[in-house]
Write a structure and sequence with these properties.
single chain; alpha/beta; five-stranded antiparallel beta sheet; seven-stranded mixed beta sheet; globular; 14 helices
Length: about 475
């Protein structure tokens, strides 16, 4: 048999022979393109069922979340939480002079990220999966090319995630990505973040608490975090300003120029064109499906700017090909969603038919700034658009015990309760504990618990969870 080996540089033939015809093509039952959350679970399910499986990624295995996103980001946030605790409890009995050693913080992050690719690849190989490095490109409906080699399969699963969107502005090549930020050997003294979403707000908070002198966020819309509740975002904006971050809205970046050892960012506002100087400019305007390189037309797979077109069963327009996660035009671009969609793909592949349809329960999301902002369910605007009749429970909670005991000043909640049924339509939180409170709201909504049922639950006290009954 024509055997393949995996090398650091890519896919090579153990015999050194070149492919001469299609009969030499290596064939699998399943080829998974993408070694992250949306792909690895599918590969394992198929391998455990006895299928011959190959998994391909052009980057180290682990995906964005484990290596370049959620997990490493939160390790940096964990360090900055120490600074925030000292700041919030200053004068309340805690006497601490805190500072962050950036290189040591990045080294701490690497204790997790450096070990992950080898651990993941080793686990896949132990399961009998052929692990390949390289960029896959479809050359037909049932075949791909990787590093000049042709592979074919009965089925494919695409889970290539997302990439930073293209801005089409002069100097775009000067932008650092979120991946670059997480690998910075030294802390930037002056940083500008282009965009006002998750990445911009979270990384701006990290940089400022780490000691950056000037941190600027340029958001082209009227407010940052457009998908989150405007009242809570306004509170976060106050907290961001108190931290010393310059948050500029209605600021559309026009160009980026190199200026000696730094950069000049030119942006347009309603009152005219302005500039800001910095040592680092970070791309934080959002991400788009990472599918341009796949040559999907050759595979008969339809797609749009929102991603690969999939059915409720996660099948593409080529019946032999599935897709899931951020590369697909499906659910919210969140890691747990990607994992759930991948599970559905695996079930349907093994069943040999469209047996499982993906259903999205209430899905919480969190912006890991300090304070955290969290949301699940409908916003007020969305609930009104649906014609729902509901009460809005909204209050600032800096005076609540759970805020007082940790010195939190910027805390609040907004919960939408349907009139008559008591059904929780949406929950929106800001403050310490929000990341776990929102999960409890998601569980309650998925279980159909009414406001009265939640009020009847006895939580451990005092805890952040015990506040929930007072929010509904």
């Amino acid at each position: 048999m024509y055997r393949l080996k995996v090398h650091e540089c890519g896919l090579t033939a153990a015999t050194g022979r070149k492919r001469k015809n299609m009969s030499d093509t290596k064939r699998f039952d399943l080829i998974v393109i993408g070694g992250g959350t949306g792909g690895n679970g599918v590969a394992r399910m198929a391998a455990n069922a006895g299928w011959s499986v190959a998994s391909i990624d052009s980057l180290p295995f682990g995906g964005t979340c484990a290596l370049r996103g959620c997990d490493p980001k939160k390790m940096l946030i964990a360090v900055t939480e120490g600074v925030e605790w000292a700041r919030s409890l200053d004068g309340k009995g805690l006497e601490a002079q805190t500072s962050i050693d950036w290189p040591n913080m990045i080294a701490f992050k690497r204790t997790f990220t450096d070990a992950m690719p080898g651990r993941i690849e080793g686990g896949l190989e132990k399961a009998g999966i052929t692990v390949l490095h390289g960029e896959a490109r479809f050359t037909g409906r049932d075949r791909i090319e990787v590093n000049g080699e042709t592979l074919s399969a009965r089925h494919f699963h695409i889970a290539t995630g997302a990439r930073p969107m293209t801005l089409n502005i002069p100097g775009e090549e000067l932008l650092a990505t979120s991946t670059d930020f997480l690998e910075l050997p030294e802390r930037p003294d002056r940083a500008v973040f282009v965009g006002g979403g998750f990445i911009a707000m979270e990384f701006a908070h990290i940089a400022k608490r780490a000691g950056a002198r000037e941190v600027t966020v340029l958001e082209m819309m009227e407010r940052p975090l457009g998908n989150f509740d405007p009242d809570l975002v306004a509170i976060l904006s106050e907290a961001t300003a108190d931290l010393g971050i310059d948050l500029r809205t209605e600021a559309k970046v026009l160009k980026i120029e190199k200026n000696g050892t730094g950069f000049t960012v030119t942006y347009e506002t309603p009152t005219g064109v302005e500039t800001v100087g910095c040592d680092l400019v970070v791309h934080a305007t959002g991400r788009v499906p990472n599918i341009d390189h796949l040559n999907l037309e050759a595979a008969g797979v339809e797609y749009s700017r929102k991603g690969i077109k999939v059915s409720p069963f996660m099948r593409t327009t080529n019946p032999a090909i599935y897709a899931a996660g951020d590369c697909a035009d499906s659910g919210p671009n969140l890691t747990p969603v990607s994992a759930n969609e991948g599970r559905i793909v695996g079930k349907n592949l093994l069943a040999g038919k469209d047996e499982r349809e993906v259903n999205y329960p209430p899905i919480p999301s969190v912006v890991f700034t300090l304070p955290q902002v969290a949301s699940v369910g409908l916003s007020e605007a969305a609930a009104r658009d649906k014609g729902l009749d509901f009460d809005t429970h909204f209050d600032k909670t800096a005076g609540w015990y759970s805020s007082l005991r940790v010195g939190a000043k910027h805390t609040a909640y907004k919960v939408l309760v349907e009139k008559g049924t008591g059904k929780i339509l949406g929950a929106h939180l800001i403050g310490p504990g929000a990341e776990e409170q929102i999960n409890l709201f998601a569980m309650a909504m998925a279980a159909g618990l009414t406001a009265n049922k939640i009020k009847g639950i006895i939580f451990a006290y005092p805890s952040f969870a015990s506040d929930i009954g007072s929010m509904v």
